[in-house]
Write a structure and sequence with these properties.
Elements lengths: L4 H7 L1 H25 L4 E5 L3 H17 L3 E3 L2 H5 L10 E7 L5 H12 L3 E6 L12 E4 L12 H18 L2 H19 L14 E6 L2 H17 L2 E6 H4 L12 E5 L6 H13 L3 E5 L10 H19 L18
Parallel strand pairs: 1-2, 1-3, 3-4, 4-5, 6-7, 6-8, 8-9
GO biological process, one term: carbohydrate derivative metabolic process
Organism: Alteromonas pelagimontana
Protein name: SIS domain-containing protein
Length: 331
């Protein structure tokens, strides 16, 4: 494995998640009991960048399994317009590595003022965010030094998954979470999905997924931009056919994120349509018989290591993408 900080941090994720599962079992059980006894009317996800993308994974998980509507907060509603929403009987889940971003803190204050029960998924449990919320689910990722988030994103997904498993009382998923560190270790040891030659000459690309595949496609597109400087946009494979598909006439590079779940048949059909229109497709998937709700984590585990290697091959420092810093202060 490379000696970059990004590679080391991404490679540590299986151990991080094994520890997190053990440490967070009781808080997830307690919150799961609470939400079954008093089901929330909805869930608002608060986060920016990578944390926002983790919220998309939560949307699919909670809406499919708990039948509760989930929406992403629009940060400007609080930060620019200073509006307080009526969130009585809502849960607000804020995801933050640092727990320090001023706009996130302000949004949590307004969510709480609006009546929401606020939960923080946070890596720094001594951060200002912790003092604002009703419950904390620690990410237990340890210090993350590389600017491009890896282990904090993966630990956010696993924390969301554990919370859901106890809320839903999904024994199959609880059992699958016990095997997740091993599944991710297998992904670390797997052959690369994305290599420098597959992205040779690529300045623009599209990342397609469906459902949980789309959730991680958002994060894949972000990493292509911030680590490699490639302009990448994520789409649901269904949404891509409603207009943007015209882009493939110019042999556009398309990254296909495929999850072996209920979405596979329709997604694969839509990707085949894109191929027939002339796209050059790179497959980003790991053939797996594992529980469909945790496959996304294994794919991201492998992808983070791959993109770090592509960056090295291109002569780019993956630890310090130009123009970025670890804590972004926005309003």
């Amino acid at each position: 494995m490379s000696n970059s900080i990004m590679a080391q941090e991404a490679g540590s994720s299986p151990a991080v998640i094994a520890n997190q599962r053990a440490e967070n079992q009781q808080i997830c059980r307690t919150l799961g009991d609470k939400f079954r006894q008093s089901p929330p009317a909805g869930v608002m996800m608060i986060g920016r960048g990578t944390s926002d993308h983790a919220g998309v994974y939560a949307k699919y998980l909670f809406e499919i399994g708990c039948n509760v509507p989930v929406f992403a907060a629009a940060p400007s509603v609080a930060g620019v317009y200073n509006a307080t929403l009526n969130l009585h009987n809502f849960v607000a889940i804020v995801i933050s590595q640092s727990g320090k971003s001023p706009d996130i803190l302000h949004q949590v204050k307004l969510a709480k003022a609006g009546g929401a029960f606020c939960i923080a998924l946070v890596n720094d449990t001594h951060s200002p965010l912790v003092a604002l919320v009703d419950a904390v689910i620690p990410l237990h990722a340890g210090e993350e030094k590389a600017v491009a988030a890896t282990k904090s994103y993966l630990s956010s997904l696993s924390a969301i998954c554990q919370l859901y498993a106890y809320w839903k009382q999904d024994d199959d998923l609880k059992a699958a979470l016990l095997t997740l560190p091993k599944l991710m270790t297998t992904a670390v040891e797997a052959s690369p999905l994305l290599t420098a030659d597959k992205l040779a000459g690529v300045a623009h690309c599209v990342v397609l997924g469906r459902g949980f595949g789309y959730a991680i496609a958002r994060e894949i597109a972000l990493k292509l931009k911030e680590v490699l400087g490639i302009h990448a946009e994520a789409f649901s494979s269904a949404e891509f056919l409603h207009g943007p598909v015209t882009l493939v006439e110019n042999k556009l590079c398309v990254l296909n994120v495929s999850i072996n779940d209920e979405s596979a048949q329709v997604h694969n059909k839509q990707v085949e349509d894109v191929i027939q229109r002339g796209a050059r497709v790179v497959n980003i998937n790991l053939l797996s018989s594992s529980h469909p709700r945790i496959q996304a984590l294994a794919i991201m585990q492998r992808f983070y290591l791959d993109i770090e290697q592509v960056a090295q091959a291109r002569g780019v420092d993956p630890d310090t993408p130009p123009g970025l810093k670890k804590v972004t202060e926005t309003v």
